[in-house]
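**Entry details**
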Amino acid sequence: MKNKKIERENVTPLLSIKDLKTYFRTDNGLVKAVDGASLHIREREILGVVGESGSGKSITAMSVLRLIPSPPGYIAGGDILFRNESLLTKSQKEMRQIRGKDISMIFQEPMSSLNPAYTVGYQIMENIMLHQSVSKQEALNRAVEMIKLVGIPSPEKRVHDYPFQMSGGMRQRVMIAMALSCHPTLLIADEPTTALDVTIQAQILQLILATREKVGSAVMLITHDLGVVAELCERVVVMYAGKVMEVAYAGDLFNNPTHPYTMGLLQSIPRLDGTGERLKIIPGSIPNPTRMPSGCRFHPRCEVADERCTVEAPPLVSPKPGQWVSCWRVTDGDRSFSSPEDCMNKQETKGGEANA
């Protein structure tokens, strides 16, 4: 399913996030972790959400499940629709019925997400028994089936193991088994291969893809690895400093990126066919979350920004079907750069003028 473009723009989304604002009150001021983000995911789609650390990817996912710690966090505005019903108006009891059954999540750190006091089998059984009317023995049998499905050997034995008795890769497989045990409609995978070696990373990603095919879930894959996105995802959302910068089909995003930030991300990837040139980087760093810049959040690092970018935030507009971009140059119809190379050349020229 590599980079398949699914032409179903008019289909009602499974999940729709509209102008989401998730803030945190801190001693240093108000942190606008997600500030007006909008995105959607369709049935059985694999959507990649990418961006640097601090861009708001994980907070967006936690907001969907209403797992934002309060205090200090709270959802200040916007809406989250799942099957056309707002999740923000649901009671905590209703959300407990949705979590793990309709929407499941694979968290970044399996060791901190699994309870060390209980066997992995019990923890999978707990989710099954919470959402389905089955006996304890039936739940145990299902847990064994799920452990076998995710490729853990000797499932009848390993179902009785504790998390500390398993390797990092095995624990992550358990997290996948738990997340998929009730056949959710939407699976959120938040950096599912963090802290795993490269070989295990590939196995886990292929496992998510294969298991998702059997279960029929849509997947929201949160990652900073653009290689993974290119391999697995159908559409991509690029986030920066709590905002959505660009949304596009994966093939379009990699072959013809539109936002300067997206171009910078692609330019910073080491290439196997490189000619020994110095690796291009995005200048500067992500802004302090308590002191966000005015205008476009990316303008302090964008060397093709003009005065308007510094004072007025660009809207998220659609230059063509399936693509959304938040950039004044796109809104105003400026096509003075149309590729990563053009953008970087403009940056280098501008940088040279500044240093002259």
